[in-house]
Amino acid sequence: MANFSKKFQGDVFGRMWPAARAYRPQVFNYHMNKILAEAPDVHEYLSRYHNLKWMRCMFDTSIKCDYIKNNLAESFNGWIKDYKDLPPDELADTLRELVMKLHEKRRKIGMKLKGKIIPAIIQQIHNRTRGLKHLKVGKSGVASCEVRDTSKYNLRHVVKIDQSECTCLEWQHTGKPCEHALAFLLDRRNPRWEDYVHDYFSLEKFRATYAGEIEPLTDRSQWPHVQFPFDMEAPLDKKRGVGRPRKNRYKSFLKGGDGGPKKKKEPKQLGSKNRCKRCHILGHRQSTCPLNGPKPRYM
C-alpha cells in the first residue's frame, strides 16, 4: 500500500484494504471493480509489480494463515536493529545465538502450558463471543444453521459445525471459529472451544515447532581456519557517509516518509494548564493565588 499510494491517490483507493482483507472472492471483486472503474491503470500496475497472491480470498485454506501485512519482517528488523552494523561473521553468529535462546524460551513455555489448544487462542475466542447481538441464528439441525447479520444489510451465511465450515470462509482460512459459528455455539451449554479450533494451534504443534535444538558454538578463536586463495578487501569506490551510520529504518510513505503526508504539528500552548481552586482562573495554583495575601512572618 505504501508504494501504491505514491502512484494512485483518492478516496476510492481506500478500497484496497477491504479488497485485500476479504475472504470471499465476491467481496474482493466488488471492491476491485470500483477501483478499476476509477483508474483502469491499476490492473496493469498490480499485474506488473504485485503479481503474487496479496488477497486473502486467493490463499490456500490448508495453511491456516491469513496475514497480509509485513509485521513479521518489521518485528525482526526491530529485534536485530542493534546488531546490523556488525561484520558478517559476527552478525550471523549473533543471530544464531538470539534464535537459540528464543527457541529455548519457547520450549520452556510449551512445557508449562496445559490443555489441547494454546491458551492465547482460547482467549481470543472468548473475546470474540462478546457483542454478537446483531447476529440472528436460525437453526436447521443439530450441527447446521443460517446466521443473519442485521448490521450488514441482513447478509446471511450458512454454518456447518461438524465440517468446520462457514460460507464467509473465515473459519476455513484461519482455523478458528468465525463470529457466525460462535453465535451458533453460544446456544450450547458450556461449549468446548478446543473442539472447534484447528490442530494448527494445538500445544502439540507448538511443542513440535521448538523441539529441535540449535547447536551451541565456541567463540571465534576456536573456529577452524580456512586458507582462501585470495584476500577480500573493502570496496574502494564507495565512500562512507558523514556522521553516525543509520540504524532506524526509513519511514514508509504512509507514515510521513519521503514524499508522504506530513503530520501536522500542534500549536504550542502558552502558559500553564493549572486552574486555581480558589479563584478558578487558569495560570496558577491555589498556593500562589493573589487572593491569598501576604504570608505571615514567623519570628
TrEMBL record:
Tree of life domain: Eukaryota
Location of the region described as Disordered in the Swiss-Prot/TrEMBL record: 234-275
GO MF, one example: zinc ion binding
Claim: Signal is one of the keywords in the record: no
Residue ranges occupied by any SWIM-type domain in the UniProt entry: 157-189
Entry keyword set: Metal-binding, Zinc, Zinc-finger
Biased composition range(s): Basic residues: 241-252
InterPro entries (alphabetical): Znf_PMZ, Znf_SWIM
Protein name: SWIM-type domain-containing protein
